[in-house]
Amino acid sequence: MSEATGILRGGARRRWLAPVLWAALLLGACLGMESLQGLFRLVEPDSRRVVYARADFLVLLGRHVFVVAVASLAAVALGVGAAVAVTRRAGRDFLPLVAQLASIGQTFPPVAVLALAVPVLGFGTLPIIVALLLYGLLPIVRNTLAGLEGIDPGVREAARGMGMTGGQLLRQVELPLAAPVILAGIRTSVTINIATAAIGATVGASNLGDPIISGIVNGNTAYVLQGALLIGLLALTVDSLFARLQPTLT
Amino acid sequence: MIELIGVSKRFGQTTAVDDISLRMAPGELSVLVGTSGCGKSTTLRMINRLIEHSDGEIHIDGQQIRGFREETLRRRMGYAIQSTGLFPHWTVARNIGLVPRLLKWPASRIHARVESLMTMLGLPMDEFADKMPRQLSGGQAQRVGVARALAADPDILLMDEPFGALDPITRETLQHELRELQARLQKTIVFVTHDMDEALRLADRLVVMDQGRIRQQGHPLALLREPADGFVASLLGGEDRGLKEAALLTVGERMMPLGAKPLPGERISRHATLREALSMMLWRHAERLVVIDDQGMAIGELSLRRLVGARSHE
Ligand SMILES: Nc1ncnc2c1ncn2[C@@H]1O[C@H](COP(=O)(O)OP(=O)(O)OP(=O)(O)O)[C@@H](O)[C@H]1O
Ligand SMILES: [Mg+2]
Question: Which ligand 1 atom is at minimum distance from the Cα of B32?
């Protein structure tokens, strides 16, 4: 028994290793980009500057995380809420519509959402949050639906037959059983949005997309690489966090 | 006491249950039988309002079920189904304690109740309490399903093929346990099955359904001896009805009591069924068996003539 818990604890420690490592690399890269100057000089020998310095990387990272977090939280609330609503008896009629929207929406490019959002919401952070929210909604809705529909009908029948209320059924049975699938949807949504948020730089939302856009505009590949490196590390950090979370919920 | 008065259920165009009337007395075990799709499950689910009836009235202890809140009604009734519907993310103990927890029993009382049920159903607490449903065999899972249905000590138990998909031996064990349980607890049980032997063995009242209607109801022996029509006769076993009837009667009821002198011969328990006695006679090529009691004492004799019930000669 004590051996088993020992193994468990060791396992838990190992699972935290990946997210901590990626986060450390991310922070290190933000703070120590200057020290990689020599490396970037190889890529961009002719430019006057090879490390992006118009804004602090940490600030850009913070803004990036903020935008993605706000959009993702809203997407989770809306997406899970919508999927739950259309699987209740009262909302059943809307199930085909929502399921279809969720699959069609996925084929809609985020740039197009941005292009449509800017005239309505103006430049800045808001349009990118809206674009990310809409785009991130889809994998969440789709997976929540799949998770709820995948529950053994016998379980639902027994739960109702035993006298659980709708709310008890949802909170104690359906959501916990669907949680791994829902979480996988959130993971996809957040990871995609971390990459997609960079596009926000084109409509004036300053984040880790800035060095990339600026690099493309000024023909400075080193800037592009720095933005891409940090976005990649952020995506890996968050993804490994989800990987850590996933098995504990099953 | 459950009473159905002229109850019907329509799903759009199809009539699943058509004007049935049934009265199930307290302590009575009623078994619904019939071909697939004849409305057995629908009838059962109307009683706990998983399905709302279209016409007629259903009463529990004299009160219309529509007068209760759905959840209140269901927590008063046990419900066990073939697929068990155990919650895969809960332990066995937590699954069994579901309804008591919904009824807000104190934790200590739930624990004691779960423990006594698990013991009663042959699932030792220290071995099974913390298991997850996927770690159980089919028979163990169905026991847990039955324990869960019994947990809040409901007066009424609704069981929809609760022992389906089990091997004959486990099935027979569970049937036996249910009979014993019923003898002690005196619930009003409504039981659905496709297995005619199971139906005959368990039923106080056998209800034969066909296309949403009740063809005949009554004690199994009465239905076997006087089926209302060809459908009932063939459903109850057709040519095998003689054997089915023999399976419902015991050696003790047919034997000829004996004086003190024990006779040599094949021995059979007085609790054995006539069917088992006949089988033994065929197997041993014997026309006569010695009947013994629980202590192994010879108490009577069963001849082939007596077994087949050649009544006029007695
Ligand atoms: N929710 C439903 N919607 C539409 N039709 C239904 C529904 N439930 C049952 N039925 C129909 O009602 C009829 C009776 O079904 P029911 O499940 O009561 O049969 P059953 O006697 O339990 O059959 P089985 O022995 O196969 O379990 C069937 O024709 C079935 O197709
Ligand atoms: Mg059925």
Answer: 21
Dihedral-angle region of residue A199 (phi above 0 means left; psi in -120 to 50 means alpha; beta otherwise): alpha
State yes or no: pLDDT of A105 exceeds 90: no
Q: CA-CA distances (angstroms) from residue B270 to A134, B172, B178, B279? A: 76, 19, 22, 15
Alpha-carbon distance of A218 to A39, in angstroms, equals 19
Nearest ligand (C-alpha, residue B33): 1
Query: Under DSSP, is residue B314 helix (H, G, I), strand (E, B) or coil?
Result: coil
The answer to whether the CB of B16 is under 6 A from ligand 1 is yes
Residue of A nearest to B51 (CA): A161
- For chain A, the residues whose C-beta falls within 8 A of a C-beta of chain B are 152-165, 168, 173, 176-177
Domain architecture of chain A: domains with CATH: 19-30+51-249 (1.10.3720.10)
Which chain B residues have a beta carbon less than 8 Å from that of A164?
Answer: 71, 98, 102
Measured in angstroms, the CA of B44 and the nearest CA of chain A are apart by 11
Q: What confidence score (pLDDT) does residue A2 get? A: 44
Question: Which region among A34-38, A234-238, B4-8, B120-124 has the lowest average model confidence (pLDDT)?
Answer: A34-38
Determine whether the shortest distance from the Cβ of B9 to ligand 1 is under 6 A. Answer: no
Structure-token match 């004007």, residue found: B19
* Residue B175 near residue B95 (C-beta atoms within 8 A): no
Could you report the average pLDDT of every consecutive run of 10 residues in chain B (314 residues)? 96 94 94 95 96 96 94 94 95 97 96 93 92 93 93 94 84 87 90 94 95 95 93 90 90 83 82 93 92 89 85 46
Q: Where are the CATH 3.40.50.300 domain residues in chain B?
A: 2-245
Residue among B87, B102, B158 whose CB faces A155 most closely:
B87
**What are the residues whose beta carbons fall under 8 Å from the beta carbon of A227, sequence distance 6 or more?**
A52, A198, A208, A209, A210, A211, A212, A215
Superfamily of domain B2-245: P-loop containing nucleotide triphosphate hydrolases (3.40.50.300)
Range A72-82 average pLDDT: 95
CB burial class (10 A; 0-12, 13-18, 19+) of residue B127?
exposed
CB contact under 8 A, B148 and A160: no
Q: Please identify, by atom number, the ligand 1 atom nearest to the C-alpha of residue B192.
A: 22
What is the pLDDT confidence band of residue A1, given thresholds at 50, 70 and 90? very low
Q: What residue ranges of chain B are covered by domains with CATH 3.10.580.10?
A: 251-313
State which CATH number among 2.40.10.340, 3.10.580.10, 3.40.80.10, 3.30.70.100 fits the domain covering B251-313. 3.10.580.10
Ligand positioned closest to the Cα atom of B14:
1
